[in-house]
Amino acid sequence: MSLNQFETDEQRAEALVDWLKANGVWIFLSIVIVIGGIIGWDYYKGHKSNRLSTQATNYYIFEQALESGKLDDKAIAAVMNDTKAEGFKDLAMLQKAAFQANDNDLKGAIADLQSQLSVTKDPVMKDLFRYRLAVVLYENKDYTASMTELNQIVTKSLTGLVKSLQGDIYVKEGRIDNAKAVYIEAFDILQSSVIQRKINQLSTGA
């Protein structure tokens, strides 16, 4: 998807939200790649140390394997076994879990997300893991556990996505009034045509 085809920032934002929602398990993959690129650039630009260069290289090898459609166990181990590579560990585990979920290994993705969530220190990153975990739990039809994770998220920039997924859960549970209420809240934040269609469908009973 190229955002250059859209004329305004509002159109670009809506297109990005729609694309993220439509691609399910890859909901945060594009964000992770952007963050990873920024971190990698800062590390290399500063030439801070050989250790940082090694960490970035290990992560790059892991990422390249993913792009070719496979998990490189040796590369992921190199990232995860480095006690000083906290940021890279978080990014790598988010990407690994996305790969597993896309490969229908939902249990593996859940286990890895839960494991990394328990040791991640940055509060925003913890909420990213909670949201990602909630998405996979939803796909695994564990709606109660998914809602539990969503209810713990406090990062305001994630509120729209949280509300949208809560709406999806309410629909699955047959709680249509609750679903419409949170979809409306999500739409007010994200202005997404995908969410608007969900509201329309619930309103017409389609």
Blueprint (SSEs and pairs):
Elements: H1 9-22, H2 29-46, H3 50-67, H4 73-80, H5 86-102, H6 106-117, H7 123-139, H8 143-150, H9 159-172, H10 176-190, H11 193-204
Helix pairs in contact: 2-5, 3-4, 3-5, 5-6, 5-7, 6-7, 7-8, 7-9, 8-9, 9-10, 10-11
Keywords:
206 residues; mainly alpha; 2 domains; elongated
Quick recap:
This protein has 11 helices and no strands. The protein has 206 residues and is an all-alpha fold.
Characterization of this structure:
- The chain is built from 11 helices and no strands.
- It has helices spanning 9-22, 29-46, 50-67, 73-80, 86-102, 106-117, 123-139, 143-150, 159-172, 176-190, 193-204.
- Helix 3 (50-67) runs antiparallel to helix 4.
- Helices cover 74% and strands 0% of the residues.
- It has 2 domains: 3-142, no CATH class; 155-206, no CATH class.
- It starts with 8 loop residues before the first helix and ends with a helix.
- Mean pLDDT is 78; it is low at 1-9 and 23-27.
- The longest helix has 18 residues, at 29-46.
- The chain has 206 residues and is mostly helical.
- Keywords: Cell membrane, Chaperone, Membrane, Transmembrane, Transmembrane helix.
- This is Ancillary SecYEG translocon subunit.
- It is a single-pass type II membrane protein.
- Residues 18-203 form the Ancillary SecYEG translocon subunit/Cell division coordinator CpoB TPR domain.
- It is found in: Cell membrane.
